[in-house]
Amino acid sequence: MYKRIIILLSSFSILFTFTGCGDSSTSTPSTTETLTSVASSKILNPYQALIETSLSYRVKALRLFEALEDKEVLTGADLDALHHLTLNQLSLKDDIAEMIEKYQYLTEDADVYSEKERMELLMISLSAILLRYDNYLLAYINYENNTKLRELLNDEDSAYDIPENTLNDMINTYNSITHRDDVKKMIAFYDKNIQAHEAVNENFFLYLKIMIDQSPSYQLGFDNTTEYTLANLDSLYNTTVDVGDDALSTLTYTLSKTLGNTAGLVETRKGKLYEDAAVATHVRSVIKAGDILLEKTPFRLTDKLIPGHWGHAVVYIGTTDELKALGIWDHPIVKEFQQQILDDKLIDEALRDDVQLNTIEHFLNVDDIAIMHDHTESDKAKAERIILTLRQLGKEYDFNFDIETSDKIVCSELVYATSIMIDWETEELVGIHTISPDNVAVKSIEDVSIFDITLLYHDGEEIKTDKKEMMQSLLENAEEEE
């Protein structure tokens, strides 16, 4: 198997069996070894799932605010959406708080851990508290500054089992001097000691490091005199968070209110093919309706979630002319998305917040890209597959990567669930079945009678010859690194 994603399905039991801040007397070597094996191995562990879920809720909060901020009268559906926004926040509140408190004491006490383990566990607490600050700073402060929405989020609602002052509690936590002192102490320890661990090349460790280093709150600092001005927040946010073509454009007190397609997707730089007009033109000249695209973004937080080379798989819907040629432009499902297609949003992909359509230019914020074309597929089968792909739009992202669920979906599952005539390679791990982008990619070299690699870029450069050989090399090298 080329890519292994081991999903831990035991809720938060492993990470949450550890003693809290300052109480190290009940820690045991066996417990430590268990956590170390979880934190250091190449899996989507429960803490990563917690972060990814929180980031997806952040994006939903931004989108909802954008939809509601100027409405004079809110509908019942609007109120329901606000209630579910509150429920989302409440569902993670205690888990995030527990992870913040869990390892704070390690700034002063190494306990039974090695220096590397100590740093990794401290980074869990630090990244959790920064996540909480960033969620407020980047999303929920907008609700605070809108009188109507602020009051609604603070109202008690027994029908939803929502207590009063939910937003106020978040505001008080954000402004707490005690919490600011806690995070400053952890940041000081991190800044002083992180260079000693530069050689660590484990996905989970790097995931935590990116979360911390690219946090706007971390970069702005926590001095009481810090002023979160319009200029420095706008500049900081747009250099540390990928917000796509619809970049956050208008700002309230601290940050913009308009949501880009991938707001919340943390990255350390832009992709090597980003805003390269020649590459975009070349892709358009090669790609055909129904093609599968793979991408590699080693500079993104999400790339650290999944071991292997390829980190994302999408489906190209096709242009208006292609859909007309296939006879489905006026199909009821296509009609629902005609305006987006006319707006050149032709990439169907499962992102952190949901399955959505995006432009080719948006997608090309990458280092590597591959296009897989099924040259055996009939027009009738392709038309049916495209319609099935469009039916997935709006589904939530599946953080369990389980292909046997239908209400949520992961990026490579989008390919699996729509290209139903292909015998895709899957893996059974920890009692579930999953498919990774590398499992999709391997078909391009194993089933040459079906798939062509019509375009391949690696590390920002086009591979013009021996594309299958390069694809095999990328997959094999990724397997060896695991």
Q: What does this 3D model show about the protein?
A:
This protein is an alpha+beta fold and 482 residues long. It has two domains: 261 residues, no CATH class; 205 residues, endopeptidase fold (from Nostoc punctiforme). The protein is 47% helix and 12% strand. It starts with 5 loop residues before the first strand and ends with a helix.
Summarize the structure.
By secondary structure, the protein is α+β, with helices and mostly antiparallel strands. The chain has helices spanning 29-40, 46-68, 76-102, 115-144, 147-154, 166-175, 177-193, 203-213, 216-220, 230-240, 277-286, 320-325, 332-335, 338-342, 360-363, 379-391, 411-418, 437-441, 443-446, 467-481, and strands at residues 6-7, 43-44, 241-242, 265-266, 292-296, 312-316, 345-350, 355-359, 368-374, 396-397, 408-409, 427-429, 432-434, 451-458, 461-462. The strands form five sheets. The chain has a seven-stranded antiparallel beta sheet with strand order 8-7-6-5-9-14-15. The protein has a two-stranded parallel sheet with strand order 1-2. Strands 3-4 form a two-stranded antiparallel ribbon.
Question: What is the number of E strands?
Answer: 15
Rg over CA atoms = 23 Å
Could you give a short account of the major beta sheet?
A: 7 strands, antiparallel
Q: Can you tell me the residue ranges where pLDDT is under 50 for at least 5 consecutive residues?
A: 1-43, 225-264
Which word captures the global form?
globular
Tally of separate helices: 20
Number of domains: 2
Class inferred from helices and paired strands:
alpha+beta
* CA-CA gap between termini: 11 Å
Order of strands, main sheet, comes to 8-7-6-5-9-14-15
Q: Quick check: average pLDDT?
A: 79
Helix content: 40-55%
- In what range is the share of β-strand residues? 5-15%
